[in-house]
Write a structure and sequence with these properties.
Radius of gyration: 21 Å
Number of strands: 0
Structural class: mainly alpha
Mean pLDDT: 80
Order of helices and strands: HHHHHHHHHHHHHHHH
Oligomer: single chain
Low-confidence stretches: 1-19, 413-417
């Protein structure tokens, strides 16, 4: 494929490559299987490293003599630096091969996790975690761009679903697995073990992922990166997916942030171990993202997004019950809807971005993490003043907004592509 020049990014910059110039990875081929499993490993490693400290937060106040709010910085700092790094990676990823950049990011993040377990002071642990989030930025946006550039369009949803399934498995392993391991050993041993596992995952990723055939590294000035982001933001279809991604993670993060507060209080009074088992619902996300990606290829993203948000809305209403069984069922429905929606929306970004797909993916993930950060924080005010009904109100509003954004455009408007 020819190397892109500056003229490729003058408005309108979003265009489709000539199909005769593209060497797609076809479904059913050995390259497709290798790419799918490699990106599964990337999703697992990155998300397990991000969320591994969540079950450990109650141990940090006693360990370091800090308050719970300060302890939460071990998680919030890594997501904050990750959001910033993802945007940068969308630009700097143009300078390196996709496989090399993702491998280096995975390896450095795993090493940072081992360093975090080796630190003697709280400030050094935070510094290691912040650096970990920064170097991890080279994985999420670039992974989505690689899939969109290399996988045949008819199978993109399935491949993206397997990647998202890897993120679900990693998030579950980081939350549940680390809590169980640390209960029998220590939080330091648990973090050492995860770091070592992720080093192996990075090596496996490098061995499995086929080299890019439809992308060549190139140098671009800063003003060109800014123009690319601006053009992506002018694209109404991409703006839809960015908004949908923010609504998905707004609901998901807010529900999981505050369901623990509800379940440890009367009348449930569940212990921390029992509450952490709720994260096992992420196993449903692994299945849902894989099958959801296949259904996207069979039907359409619009249909699957409406199904996803409908599942989320039904789950929110189920959590209004006082029955712990119905509450868990509701959380499971929210989890399934979230991962189906994330698979559909993330594959839609790549399919509609034309050239400079990593820039488009970076913007999607920026909105994605901003939704989690902003709505997750605002949800605390609803919890304090209105309890669980308040959480239901804000998350239901986000789910309804997602359904509206997924609906076809009015007659006479531009043809919807989702």
């Amino acid at each position: 494929m020819r190397q892109l020049s500056n003229q490729d990014f003058t408005p309108p910059i979003i265009k489709t490559a000539n199909p005769s110039d593209v060497l797609w990875i076809e479904h059913g081929s050995s390259r497709f299987r290798r790419a799918s499993w490699a990106l599964f490993l990337a999703g697992f490693a990155s998300f397990s490293l991000i969320y591994c400290v969540q079950p450990l937060l109650p141990e940090f106040p006693e360990e370091f003599g800090i308050n719970p709010a300060t302890a939460s910085l071990a998680l919030s700092l890594i997501t904050g630096t990750l959001a910033f790094a993802i945007l940068l990676s969308g630009a700097f990823s143009q300078l390196f091969t996709r496989r090399r950049l993702m491998f280096v990011s995975m390896m450095l993040a795993a090493v940072c996790n081992i360093i975090a377990a080796s630190t003697n002071g709280w400030e050094w642990l935070l510094a290691a975690r912040a650096l970990e989030g920064f170097v991890l930025g080279g994985v999420p946006a670039v992974a989505m761009a690689y899939l969109a550039e290399e996988i045949e369009p008819a199978s993109l949803g399935k491949a993206m679903g397997l990647y998202v399934g890897g993120t679900a498995f990693g998030a579950m392993a980081g939350r549940v697995g680390m809590g169980l391991v640390s209960a029998f050993t220590s939080w330091q041993v648990a973090m050492y073990a995860l770091g070592a596992i992720c080093v192996v995952a990075a090596i496996g990723f490098l061995m499995l992922l086929p080299p890019s055939r439809n992308f060549r590294p190139q140098r671009m000035p800063l003003n060109m990166h800014l123009r690319i982001w601006a053009e992506h933001l002018k694209n109404p279809d991409l703006r839809r997916f960015y908004f949908i991604g923010a609504m998905l993670t707004s609901v998901f993060t807010t529900v999981f942030n505050y369901c623990a507060f509800r379940l440890v209080a009367p009348p449930y009074e569940l212990g921390r171990t029992a509450v952490s088992m709720i994260f096992l619902t992420f196993a449903l996300g692994i299945v849902a993202s894989s099958y959801g990606g296949t259904l996207v290829d069979r039907f359409s993203r619009r249909v699957m997004l409406i199904v996803a948000f409908s599942s989320i809305l039904a789950g929110i209403f189920l959590t209004f019950s006082s029955s712990i069984i119905l509450i868990v069922m509701g959380i499971a429905a929210i989890t399934v809807g979230f991962f189906i929606g994330h698979s559909a929306a993330s594959s839609g970004v790549g399919a509609n971005a034309g050239t400079a797909k990593s820039h488009a993916s970076a913007l999607y993930l920026l909105f994605y993490y901003c939704g989690a950060s902003i709505t997750g924080w605002i949800g605390g005010w609803f919890w304090i003043h209105a309890g669980w009904p308040g959480i239901m109100a804000i998350t239901s509003a986000c789910a309804l907004a997602g359904i509206v954004a997924s609906l076809p455009r009015p007659a006479g408007g531009p043809r919807p592509v989702i």
